[in-house]
Amino acid sequence: MFDPVAIVPHNVRVSDSGPSVALNGVTKSYPGGTVAVDGVTVEVAGGTFVALVGSSGSGKSTLLKTINRLIEPSAGSIAIDGQAIDAEDRFRLRRRIGYVFQNIGLFPHLTVAENVAIGLRLEGEKNPRARVAELLGLVDLPADFATRMPDALSGGQRQRVGVARALATEPRLLLMDEPFGALDPVTRDQLGGAIRALHDRLGLTTIMVTHDMAEALLLADRVLVMDKGRIVADAVPRALLTGEGGAAAQALVAVPREQMKRLGALEAGA
Ligand code: ADP
Ligand code: MG
User: Fold this and answer.
1) Closest Cα to atom 20 of ligand 1
2) To pair with 47 at 20 to 30 A between CA atoms, which of 21, 171, 183, 265?
């Protein structure tokens, strides 16, 4: 039914993997004393799908935004494929990094096509129509959605447009901030699977923020758990499911596990 990867954008190299991302002692403090991110050092290998999990306020969004320089860290450094991200112009950097906003972030007064093509226009592309159609196909939306306004779309469709926009300039690194947060569970599950398939097909490096541990376990290769600005666990899903990763991670894993048990008991008629 659902083949989000039937069309691959032009020029995309599907064989090699996305870039590595290395954070070294990244800290972000806000005036007033909040330390949103506190000395994070982590290395993400090229091609990995990483989930960044943690409760609200743990610093996930702040950390994600330091990678595309929407936020400048107070201390520490970040390199993509070994190159310091502040060595180049931040707008150029952002064209190489897809970013899906926490609250979708489509411009309400622009059509779907105009929203998708924003990055392309910034690159001087005058007639991105064919490319927009291709991108809509990539996220499994009909081409005639191009002329619709965002408020004429469902939440899931809007989020697909957000993903199409993020992929427009053919980035190899995709950052997503709670991309499925506002969606119903069925749409959420479908879109999660679609994104994972896109990641694999396009050979991306993906860092996805979520507060949902079940989603992280099901989609990611590696799960980073954040608490009070720090990475407190770093493990593959299977290790987390077998009890590794420490107390904070296990507290999050306990939620879906407990739900599964209760559902199992219900099914068994207990
Ligand atoms: P998360 O995405 O995990 O919910 P955030 O990264 O948004 O967390 O926020 C981490 C902490 O930083 C929170 O305590 C939040 O209140 C604080 N914070 C975020 N943005 C700002 C800001 N612009 N000014 C001051 N404090 C902020
Ligand atoms: Mg957030």
Assistant:
1) 62
2) 183
